[in-house]
Design brief:
This protein is of the alpha/beta class. 22% of the residues lie in helices and 26% in strands. Helix 4 crosses helix 5 and helix 4 packs across helix 8. The model has no long low-confidence stretch (mean pLDDT 95).
Length: 331
């Protein structure tokens, strides 16, 4: 099979011809990959900001695929079924975090496209319990961004208070934000979108998707915010957002990696404001989000790349050359 492989961090991916993956545990399924989203987390892995990946590694954790073969213990999937595979690829199910419903913090968790091979390839393995059933008729390009950007955005929104916020700030209007904006607007929230200075395309997209205001992250919003979500990996924005939320408000980071948060005066945190981070996702997040998304319905702004052009997709993401999400296709 064709695959794009990370051999050394700090180096571009290499196109390789590899053997077809073999099922290794009874709960695994072999998937023919239709599409795989490109995520900023992939950049953090390539750049060495997330240490100790599997090597060599096939990245990619927003996989849309069709089941080709199943392990002996698989009971709910069969060949021909369509599934989505997210970042959280496996947990032990027995540690104290798993026992109390926080499997996203599992001490033995394994992650798709990081500690286990992912979807930048024609075929991929996944553990059945961590596959989400998908409708047979939905376009793979549209679904792929939902499997990380959508899921993490949804969990970030929930940790910030979900529907309880009237005015919601979103910092960094990329893949996660453009999906979450639609969810928040559907629930009747007023969304205020902050982008890189001068990024008029992202600001226009935000307004087109329902944001009541869109501007630069260097600007003040016209209203005080009830909560803020920070998707850009810029620590300074956590402090900026904290200065814009009302008493009792939360600022939640949806990124797996972020530059350092600078020191700030206590008065910004006082009056029961809070800062939080999101780590990974739970399967419950996934099922809840995938139940809501079709009802909105969520529209994804997608930029398609061939598998062989994965390095170009990553560089375009790095430099903010598109608004929305990038997806690799296997055609």
């Amino acid at each position: 099979m064709k695959a794009m492989v990370l051999e050394e961090q700090g180096q571009p991916l290499k196109q390789r011809q590899l053997p077809m993956p073999e099922i290794q545990t009874p709960d695994q399924v072999l998937l023919k990959v239709e599409a795989c989203g490109v995520c900023r987390t992939d950049l953090h892995i390539l750049d060495g900001e997330l240490p100790d990946p599997k090597r060599p590694l096939i990245p990619g954790h927003q996989i849309v695929g069709t089941v080709v073969r199943t392990g002996d213990a698989v009971t709910n999937l069969q060949p021909g079924d369509r599934v989505g595979v997210p970042w959280l690829g496996h947990t032990d199910g027995s540690c104290r975090y798993c026992r109390r419903g926080q499997e996203n913090l599992c001490e033995q968790a394994r992650f798709t496209g990081y500690t286990m091979d992912g979807g930048y390839a024609e075929y991929a393995l996944a553990h059945e319990p961590f596959c989400f059933p998908l409708p047979p008729d939905a376009r793979a390009l549209d679904i792929a961004p939902l499997l990380c950007a959508g899921l993490i955005g949804f969990r970030t929104w929930r940790l910030a208070g979900g529907v309880d916020n009237e005015r919601l700030g979103i910092y960094g209007f990329g893949a996660a934000a453009h999906i979450l904006c639609q969810i928040a607007c559907w629930y009747g929230q007023s969304v205020y979108a902050f982008t890189r200075p001068g990024d008029e395309a992202a600001q226009k997209l935000a307004r087109d998707l329902g944001a009541v205001w869109a501007g630069s992250s260097e600007e003040d919003p016209p209203e005080v915010l009830d909560a803020a979500l920070v998707f850009a990996p810029v620590g300074d924005l956590m402090v900026t957002a904290l200065g814009h939320v009302d008493r009792g408000g939360s600022v939640v980071s949806g990124g797996i990696h972020m530059s350092d948060i600078p020191a700030f005066p206590y008065r910004l945190l006082w009056e029961e404001r809070s800062m939080k981070s999101v780590a990974n996702l739970t399967r419950e997040d996934g099922h809840a989000f995938l139940e809501v998304a079709p009802r909105v319905p969520v529209r994804t702004e997608v930029h398609a790349y061939a598998l062989k052009d994965a390095n170009q997709a990553l560089e375009d993401l790095r430099h903010g050359r598109f608004a929305g999400a990038a997806v690799l296709t296997m055609d």
